[in-house]
User: Fold TetR family transcriptional regulator C-terminal domain-containing protein from Vreelandella salicampi.
Amino acid sequence: MTQPTSAVKTPPRRNDATRARNEQAILTAAERIFARHGYRGASVQAIAEAAELPKSNVLYYMGSKQALYVRLLARMMKRWNALLDDISVEDDPAEVLTAFIERKMQLSRRHPEGSRLFAAEILGGAPFLQEYLHGELREWVEGRARVFEQWAERGLMDPVNPVWLIFLIWSSTQHYADFEAQVLGITGKDALDDADTEEITAFLTRVVLKGCGVQSRQKAPPERKMPSYSVRNDA
Amino acid sequence: MTQPTSAVKTPPRRNDATRARNEQAILTAAERIFARHGYRGASVQAIAEAAELPKSNVLYYMGSKQALYVRLLARMMKRWNALLDDISVEDDPAEVLTAFIERKMQLSRRHPEGSRLFAAEILGGAPFLQEYLHGELREWVEGRARVFEQWAERGLMDPVNPVWLIFLIWSSTQHYADFEAQVLGITGKDALDDADTEEITAFLTRVVLKGCGVQSRQKAPPERKMPSYSVRNDA
DNA sequence: TATGTTCCTGACCATTTGGTCAACATGTGA
DNA sequence: TCACATGTTGACCAAATGGTCAGGAACATA
Assistant:
């Protein structure tokens, strides 16, 4: 179904489109199955069926169940790392934390299956991610923590334990992907839409900033929208 | 559990201690295995080995893998329900929220395997807990939400969306059980001790109360214990 | 001791598991 | 056209899966 542009010379590649398409189908299907059942609980057969391919074909492309799983984890960690940008003491605390929460929330929203895959891996004791957690990620946390502490010293925020703060942001955002079934069950919704996500992001930002006494460096608050929760209230 | 305790005929008491001991061993082992690998990924053989019993014995006591799993879920929901006490508008917001956070934190700390079992169930789409989530739990949340709203109307706290607030507390406390591997990897600790738990509880309480502008009604300060905040701040 | 109930477990079964492989299909460049 | 690489997949395998069952062990009451 791929229409070759006759005018442009086709690249000397082989049947590359098929490969890409099949790999994509497998990765997407596998992410869902692994997220739902964990590494052990997922079967190659189930992944193959979800990808609408024979089991042999899945193994042909991915080599083995473990290789497929590791590849998915790596892809998710890459997405994760993409939002781990660097910050400095000179930055504005309110801005940084706001951006942090918003990006993390978007990651969970844009890649819910990936988020759940990651969660399942950690839940099972992180057998494949030990090194990452103890190395790269730990160093990143420590770097941020130092900045938070310096902000606190300069009176730009309360002297809270920065590691607990980072965990608070991670957990409260991650929740909406990992515990989606619970969230939907309790709210009675079929799915969370963009408006819900914005409202939740605003709520979390508000509580974290206010709760940690974060000062803005008198830059204008970059609010385009103000989805405040409405309560019949009159004073 | 269904012991007819017939007063007429022989009370069929027997070697009851053995039964209790074996069942306990199985439940403990199974909770760990299910938490680690999810329902599908856990094997009866693995549970049997962890309980140091033959596989047949596990099936003899529990009937089936599914019955065992359901029983564990029920046990965890019972623990969970134990901290879902009722509240009213007349209560003190600060007290209620503080107690809520503390109890939830203790639940995660006292039953980490159970917490992870629950998390794995939700992560997999809550196939066995749909009813509970849509029914009992949802009603409880709505009840609390109404109280929070009334508090907000009376100016005792900010008018935040109470459901997001409840999720915030659930997620941020649950995190320390479910993502233990990540927490330990990043902090470099072997385990979180009581002091850590108290510090985290204090941090979360502080951020939530301050972040939601929760007012205390100047009732008497906490009853038995006073978890000292390691952070002192401006009034 | 006799009798009945519960406890215990190795042997077994049908099914599913991850993975291999040979055979064939479909291209691709000469 | 040929030769060769890549794509595709059903058949197959040893191991593990959840579960059954027969039959013996242990125990309690009579």
Q: What stands out?
A: The CA atoms of residues 36 and 116 of chain B lie 8 Å apart. Chain B touches chain A through 66 residues (CB under 8 Å). Residues 10, 13-15, 43-45, 55-56, 59, 64-65 of chain B lie near DNA strand D (CB under 10 Å from a C1').
